[in-house]
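Researcher: I'd like a structural prediction for the single chain below. Treat it as a standalone chain; there are no partners to consider.
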Amino acid sequence: MAYTNKARVQNLLMITIDDSFATQMEEWVSAVSRWIDNYTGTTFEQESDTYKLYDGDGTRELVIDELLTLTKIETLDEDGDVDETLDATTQYYLYPANKTPKFRIHINAANAPIAIFPRGHQNIKVTGTFGHSATIIEDVRLAATKLVAAIIKESKTDITGEITSERLGEYSVSLQDLDKIADRLGVKDILQPYVIVPIG
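Model: Treating it as a single chain, here is the predicted structure.
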């Protein structure tokens, strides 16, 4: 699921973008999406049926990436083989309790096969659906649409009417360019409520 699309960009710019320009548009949408993810420290597009590895620190609590649904938690040995599996909701607590996405897992030692997340590097495997939400937030859609539209406007200052790939050529944009554009358009203000501040 892309953060924005050609139709949204056309509506914002009030122009028509030729279909032959679809590949370049996809590249810019991808670049903008990566910039938004990097700036906020989160991924708004959900990653279904995937897993992420974390370091166990010998405590009952594990800080994780934004999680929408949890399938199972596994502890791994030195060879990467599964030691223990937590796959029942009675074996752990997810926090925050009354909000999605979740950021922390706490072991319920009374019901789980382990009392702590054992110390190690990349020895805790969390499987589930990661991401900020099941659908893209409208604020994020707006930010992405504004950034892609700005890239198009800056690639050709004399845009009027229909845009074609021949007119735009091979204009490219860097993450540094996006950073400057985002500052100028107030995109960072739109995204600020979703910025995750690293702990520690």
